[in-house]
Design brief:
5 strands; OB fold (Dihydrolipoamide Acetyltransferase, E2P); 2 domains; NfeD2_TM; 20% strand; 5-stranded mixed beta barrel
Length: 178
């Protein structure tokens, strides 16, 4: 096996492993990367292009008598074409999608919710948050370390370790003090 065949095989296998890891751990990786957004240079496009380059290059090297330069150039054109097609047929339309049923925990900051289970001053309660996908319940703790009774409207200030840190909604909090 020649050096170029090995490079093509590494691109192909690396892309397949990346696809498998993304399939299994995609949400965790997205949460770790946070709000990093590169419209054209998205990792899925780069990896799909390299995977196609590797697959086409490996097959052409094995099945044809073409020169190494011709195989590389054709493989690069196919890989780049696949990445460009994926961008315009998949990524760009998905960016313009108005609604999605999925969400990330980091998107909960700033949302209004309602306390479902009283939040003690030192502990966890439960907050109901309405999202596009429906109503979700999340563990919550008081940001000011004050007890928040069930039924109180709250604002999610921060999300850490899958716990919402909330504070009473200002309008409701002021009404309760009158």
């Amino acid at each position: 096996m020649g050096a170029m065949e090995m490079i093509y095989l590494i691109c192909l296998v690396g892309g397949l492993i990346y696809a498998l890891v993304t399939l299994l751990l995609g949400d965790a990786i997205s949460d770790m990367l946070g709000e990093l957004h590169l419209p054209v240079l998205q990792p899925i496009l780069l990896v799909s292009g390299l995977t196609a380059l590797g697959g086409v290059g490996f097959l052409l090297t094995r099945l044809t008598e073409w020169s190494g330069l011709a195989v590389f150039l054709l493989s690069a054109v196919v890989g780049a074409s696949l990445a460009v097609a994926a961008y315009f047929l998949w990524i760009k339309p998905m960016d313009k999608a108005e609604t999605s049923t999925g969400y990330s925990m980091s998107q909960l900051s700033g949302k209004i919710g309602e306390v479902g289970t009283t939040i003690p001053s030192e502990g966890l309660g439960e907050v109901l948050v309405k999202m596009v996908s429906g109503t979700t319940y999340h563990m919550a703790s008081s940001m000011e370390k004050e007890s928040i009774p069930a039924g109180t409207r709250v604002v999610v200030v921060e999300v850490r370790d899958h716990v919402l840190y909330v504070t009473p909604f200002p309008e409701d909090h002021e009404k309760g003090e009158d």
